[in-house]
Design goal:
558 residues, alpha+beta, 12% strand, two-stranded antiparallel sheet
């Protein structure tokens, strides 16, 4: 996760390429075993005094960020460009995240010292001081190393130098009490090992002072609640609680991390979602309790047919990509999954997690599964704006269609819906009229293979196009073009989400022309998709929905 910059760790394009953004010019190059970025104003020669040697990298799967010394103690600043691995390109850091649009190149001073080191390194001691030159942040190891999950290991290493002692613990039931093994903790204590980083939390006042100087005192196997408060839905289930939390955390803290009902909406904070799940909170001693290791494993199983590349993205255990993940506890459902889901066995609609863990969390330029186990609800979509599982897959269907099926299948009373909610596909309402978070998730869903197979793709282009052309959030534009290129006929369309608005304007005409040439089959021409029987787009309704776009500030602190 965090590594010293070297030829072994760098994935970015340091081949002498130059990048220009917001009046700034960057040249990225390798000098022997070192990696450098020269920075200057557009149109001027590079000033050697503005060169920065990049010393740390963070990330290696989807994108990679870089850090350089600020020249003040051990303070590290974030280099303002991030490398997108799949696209092989550099972009300003803030454009790869859902953040309010900014004019210029923001600088993130000391971010490593004030926050990132806490979870992106092992044995962190921030050691912050009021004087910048005295910042003395130290870590035991960069990245997420053994002791992050297993606790202090000095005694374990010393004793196990004895080969006979090591051999004695090779039996299946062997338990070495000199080290913590999360697999042998209770589900809740085991989940807290993950929750020390994969959650949103506040320190107790006394603990906060210790952390700044001596480091974080939580160790694997401890009770996490003894040193910090994990913030989750139950902490804001009344207006009074939410107001109290807002006073403690700041004006925008909750909106930047949670849906309005307290469900987590940003990636990397799965524990805060887990602890609100009935599979975790049921309190029945006769039932299994769901923890992180119910589905995930931190070490790839030897002999697994899955490649390391496939496994490392979400680190699921053997067989956990299907219904086994849920049926290990809900054994009584094994023989009646299709009866319960009302979807054909083996279909994407008969996979438990597609209904109960939909992609309503956002991060890394994509939708990510919610880790609060829930059931599809049109009412929740109306109250929070969060896409429900049914309409996130059946993108061509209305909220009324979903409400009708939930009533006939599960007896859930339908909510009151407006005429547009009754007649227009929910995805169109979200992608044209929603806020930046809704637009991002819906645009991503249009590139999600199961949704494409169910909803078909021939109608989607005219709704992705306006995002690509005029959406003020660069990340939304990026996601829209990524999904468009998965649709037949649009794979090789030329487009740069960071281009000037005037250059992006031409994309609307190009997309529309390609779409018209690939005439929709009659079966896809539906009023809910704003198309008449001839396949023509209802431009007046399309434009009217665009004018209703929710332009509220959205800042998803993933």
């Amino acid at each position: 996760m965090t590594q010293v910059v070297s030829p072994r760790t760098v994935v970015g394009g340091f081949d002498g390429r130059e990048e220009n953004f917001y009046g700034w010019r960057f040249r990225l190059e390798r000098r022997g075993e070192e990696y450098w970025a020269e920075i200057g104003d557009t149109g001027k020669a590079f000033d050697s005094g503005a060169a920065r040697r990049l010393v740390l990298s963070t990330g290696s799967h989807h994108m990679q960020k870089y850090w350089y010394s600020a020249g003040e103690g051990r303070k590290l600043d974030l280099f303002p460009l991030v490398y997108l691995i799949e696209s092989d390109r550099w972009v300003p850091v803030h454009t790869a995240f859902i953040q309010p649009p900014k004019a210029g190149m923001p600088v993130s001073e000391g971010r490593w010292n004030t926050g990132c080191n806490q979870c992106h390194a092992t044995g962190s001691r921030p050691r912050l001081h009021d004087e910048p030159g005295k910042i003395d942040t130290r870590v035991a190891e960069f990245g997420i190393a053994c002791e992050s999950c297993h606790g202090p290991a000095e005694e374990h290493v010393r004793l196990n130098r004895d080969p006979l002692r090591r051999y004695s613990y090779h039996g299946e039931d062997g338990s070495d009490d000199t080290i913590v093994n999360p697999a042998r903790l209770s589900p809740k204590l085991s989940a807290q090992v993950c929750g020390q980083c994969h959650s949103i939390w506040m320190s107790t006042p006394e603990e906060g002072k210790k952390e700044l100087e001596g480091g974080f005192t939580y160790r694997a196997g401890d009770d996490l609640s003894s040193t910090r408060q994990v913030i989750h839905g139950a902490d804001m289930d009344t207006p009074e609680k939410r107001i109290g939390l807002t006073k403690a955390t700041g004006r925008n803290f909750l909106d930047d991390r949670y849906w309005s009902d307290g469900m987590i909406r940003i990636a990397g904070r799965e524990y805060s979602g887990l602890v609100d799940s009935p599979c975790y909170t049921h309190g029945n001693p006769d039932k299994k309790t769901m923890g992180c290791m119910s589905c995930h494993t931190m070490h790839k199983k030897k002999g697994s047919a899955e490649s390391i590349k496939e496994w490392r993205d979400d680190q699921l255990g053997e067989g956990m990509r299907g219904n086994k993940a849920c049926l290990q506890c809900h054994e009584d459902m094994s023989a009646k999954v299709p009866e319960h889901t009302h979807h054909q066995a083996g279909s994407s609609g008969s996979l438990c997690y597609n209904c109960h863990m939909p992609h309503t969390t956002y991060g890394l330029l994509k939708g990510i599964r919610s880790h609060t186990i829930s059931s599809p609800s049109v009412q929740e979509s109306l109250q929070t704006g969060r896409p429900n599982a049914c309409n996130a897959c059946h993108l061509d269907k209305t909220l009324q269609w979903t409400a009708g099926h939930l009533e006939s299948w599960y007896g859930i009373g339908p909510p009151t819906l407006t005429p547009p909610q009754q007649k227009i596909a929910a995805s169109i309402l979200w992608i044209l009229g929603g806020d930046a978070g809704q637009r991002a998730l819906t645009a991503w869903a249009m590139g999600w293979k199961p949704a494409q197979e169910i909803s078909k793709t021939g109608w989607m282009a005219p709704f992705l196009a306006p995002l690509m052309q005029q959406d003020p959030y660069p990340a939304v534009r990026y996601i829209a073009q990524h999904s468009l290129r998965t649709i037949p006929g649009f794979r090789f369309i030329e487009y740069d989400y960071m281009a000037h608005p005037n250059q992006r304007l031409a994309i609307l005409g190009k997309i529309h022309d390609i779409w018209k040439r690939n005439k929709l089959p009659a079966a896809s021409r539906k009023g809910s998709l704003l198309m008449d029987p001839s396949g023509n787009l209802a431009q007046n309704v399309w434009q009217a929905l665009l004018k209703t776009r929710n332009n509220r500030r959205v800042n998803l602190e993933e």
